[in-house]
């Protein structure tokens, strides 16, 4: 079991059997997430290795992992919202134990994490893990 | 009569499904699929006829040399070059243009000398010239396209100054589909005594090319876009330019005599083909070009014009589609974005789910994208096996994108 925010998403996904509806929901999750201010979209927060742009601002606090993220692609933005539900609020020492690929597979979205997809999500997960480990 | 169903039946990959949907392959601008005759030639090349070329006296070596050298004449016919000795094989346009940059341009360029490029060149026809800019102080002069994506040949000719040593220009834009009047450019450049290199990577796929009629000094083609294997390509180099060109790579096969202190060269074009070449890929390219010639380059062009017209007609109904490039006689290459927040990657992700393969990004043409003031776009590029029904499938999928990302 992942944390509640992610389980809520997983519950919703159980009722969405075709990909169009799943994508629709991912896009909605992205739209509902607060956008990153332009001032935070700087080279330091940019995740490399992606053709669309992806930004990650990690903010671990008192042993708990927090982050904000954004992308100029709507599907990627929605997937960042999913990662947010998966990682945000988790104790930093637990972050590396989360199997993002396995959890996204439950939503039928794991192909977005594959190395062949240059959407930056894989690099983002890497950076989340690194930052959390450094803060632990 | 062009029978597209018969053409399609010759491409095994076109009968496969992607994400549960019949494949609609619209990424031909990046690379084309291969017909059965090419696949058979590759198999035969390795299974029955393989050996190194030019070297042995044994039977297999003669067969593979004959097939390899035979391809030179196929390319000569395909481009209507005067002589097959003016055809140099390589691995594709990138290597072809680098051969010219290193072999012909580099030794004759002084600091302050100029190369004229159009803004819609592919990086393969930009970055080798940046090398000369960085390393030898060569100046790149850019000629812009107008709002419709047309390149005025006179503007290119006018950009030629006393220090210009080369004009390097595409024959067809890989982003906009614009066809460039390279014949007019060559005429004007010739009057000023400046050679012209034409990047034919896209054009040669979609229309008949006659290098004698164009009057260019260099013409580059790439096998993998011409329904041939990847790792194959050729450049036409006019005899007079070839005499001025030095080899780009040294090694076996390109030499006549090698001693401790001296080396003499093999006769051109072999002088420019060091080492063991892409033997089977090159042979496969010859088979692909022969196959295209048999199909008829005019017939292919006419079929693709029908696809282009159908696409333009259908796109008119999508008032939220931003199309780049409205050039009159353009090829069936469409670069676009959708109004609203959708990124090119969003669109291509959804199209992929629908079984439709397009390219998303900046298409190896960043200066053009900057000129157009656009970031990443999607590109649907049609080939000889695409159908009008596939245009409709694309439009239907784009309508879904518009709805999903609204």
Commentary on this structure:
Chain B: Catalyzes the removal of elemental sulfur and selenium atoms from L-cysteine, L-cystine, L-selenocysteine, and L-selenocystine to produce L-alanine. Chain B: Its EC number is 2.8.1.7. Chain B: Residues 24-394 form the Aminotransferase class V domain. Chain B: It is an enzyme of class 2 (transferase). The complex is a heterodimer of chains A (136) and B (406). Chain A has 136 residues and is mainly α. Chain A has a single domain, classed as Sufe protein. Chain: A (Alpha-Beta Complex), CATH 3.90.1010.10. In chain A, 45% of the residues lie in helices and 10% in strands. The mean pLDDT of chain A is 89. Chain B contains 15 helices and 17 strands. In chain B, the strands form 5 sheets. Chain B has a 7-stranded mixed sheet, with helices on both faces. The longest helix of chain B has 21 residues, at 59-79. The radius of gyration of chain B is 22 Å and the shape is globular. Chain B starts with a helix and ends with a helix. The model of chain B has no long low-confidence stretch (mean pLDDT 96).
Q: Could you list some keywords that capture this structure?
A:
heterodimer; A: 136 residues; mainly alpha; Sufe protein. Chain: A; two-stranded antiparallel ribbon; 45% helix; B: 406 residues; alpha/beta; Aspartate Aminotransferase, domain 1; Aspartate Aminotransferase, domain 2; 7-stranded mixed β-sheet; globular
């Amino acid at each position: 079991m992942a944390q509640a925010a992610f389980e809520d998403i997983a519950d919703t996904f159980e009722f969405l059997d075709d990909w169009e509806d799943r994508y629709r929901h991912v896009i909605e999750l992205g739209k509902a997430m607060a956008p990153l201010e332009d001032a935070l979209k700087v080279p330091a927060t940019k995740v490399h290795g992606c053709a669309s742009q992806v930004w990650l601002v990690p903010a671990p606090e008192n042993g708990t992992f927090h982050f904000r993220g954004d992308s100029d692609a709507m599907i990627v933005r929605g997937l960042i919202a999913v990662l947010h539900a998966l990682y945000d609020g988790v104790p930093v020492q637990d972050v590396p134990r989360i199997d993002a690929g396995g959890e996204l597979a439950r939503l039928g979205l794991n192909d977005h994490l594959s190395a062949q997809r240059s959407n930056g999500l894989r690099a983002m997960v890497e950076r989340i893990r690194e930052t959390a480990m450094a803060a632990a | 009569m062009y029978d597209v169903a018969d053409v399609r039946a010759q491409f095994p990959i076109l009968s496969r499904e992607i994400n549960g949907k019949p494949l609609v392959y619209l990424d031909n601008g990046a690379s084309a699929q291969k017909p059965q005759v090419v696949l058979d030639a590759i198999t035969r090349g390795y299974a029955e006829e393989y050996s190194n070329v030019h070297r042995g006296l044994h039977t297999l070596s003669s067969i593979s040399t004959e097939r390899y050298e035979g391809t030179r004449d196929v390319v000569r016919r395909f481009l209507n070059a005067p002589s097959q000795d003016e055809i140099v094989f390589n691995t594709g346009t990138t290597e072809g243009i680098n051969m010219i940059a290193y072999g012909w341009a580099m030794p004759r360029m002084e600091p302050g000398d100029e190369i004229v490029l159009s803004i819609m060149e592919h990086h393969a026809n930009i970055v080798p010239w940046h090398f000369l800019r960085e390393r030898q102080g060569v100046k790149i002069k850019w000629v812009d396209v107008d709002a419709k994506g047309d390149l005025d040949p006179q503007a290119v000719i006018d950009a030629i100054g006393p220090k210009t040593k080369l004009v390097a220009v595409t024959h067809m834009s890989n982003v906009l589909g614009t066809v460039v009047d390279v014949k007019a450019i060559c005429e004007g450049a010739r009057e000023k005594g400046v050679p012209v290199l034409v990047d034919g990577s896209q054009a040669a796929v979609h229309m008949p090319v006659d290098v004698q009629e164009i009057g260019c000094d260099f013409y580059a083609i790439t096998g993998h876009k011409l329904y041939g294997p990847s790792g194959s390509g050729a450049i036409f180099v006019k005899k007079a330019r070839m005499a001025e060109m030095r080899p780009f790579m040294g090694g076996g096969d390109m030499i006549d005599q090698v001693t401790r202190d001296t080396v003499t060269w093999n006769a051109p074009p072999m002088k420019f083909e060091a080492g063991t070449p892409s033997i089977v890929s090159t042979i496969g390219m010859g088979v692909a070009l022969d196959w295209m010639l048999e199909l008829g380059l005019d017939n292919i062009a006419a079929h693709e014009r029908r696809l282009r017209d159908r696409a333009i007609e259908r796109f008119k109904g999508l008032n939220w589609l931003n199309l780049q490039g409205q050039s009159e006689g353009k090829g069936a290459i469409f670069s676009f974005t959708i109004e609203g927040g959708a990124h090119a990657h969003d669109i291509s992700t959804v199209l992929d789910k629908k079984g439709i393969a397009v390219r998303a990004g900046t298409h190896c043409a960043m200066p053009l994208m900057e000129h157009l003031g656009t970031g990443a776009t999607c590109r649907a590029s049609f080939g000889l096996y695409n159908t009008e029904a596939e245009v409709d499938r694309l439009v239907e999928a784009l309508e879904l994108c518009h709805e999903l990302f609204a």
